[in-house]
Write a structure and sequence with these properties.
By secondary structure, this protein is mostly helical. The protein has two helices and no strands. The chain has helices at about 10-15, 45-60. Mean pLDDT is about 75; it is low at about 60-65.
Length: about 70
């Protein structure tokens, strides 16, 4: 018997093994993400994905209080 902290995407595997997943409400855990691109000119697919990711993260960014910022 035990517990562990894990990202939300682990929930799919956890349910398959009969484990329960509970969201940690306090303290809120926040990660910084970095996007690394090649020095050379990226392919159109890489550029499109990078733009999608930047837009998505901007829309879903949390405020300092931990509340989701409303998307415009």
């Amino acid at each position: 018997l035990g517990i562990t902290l894990s990202p939300m995407y682990v929930g799919v595997a956890a349910r398959g093994m009969g484990l329960a997943m509970k969201r940690v409400e306090e303290p809120e855990i926040v990660r910084q993400l970095s996007l690394y691109l090649p020095r050379r000119s990226p392919t159109p697919a890489v550029s499109a994905f990078a733009e999608f990711l930047k837009d998505y993260l901007t829309r879903h960014q949390l405020t300092k209080s931990g509340q989701r910022r409303r998307s415009a």
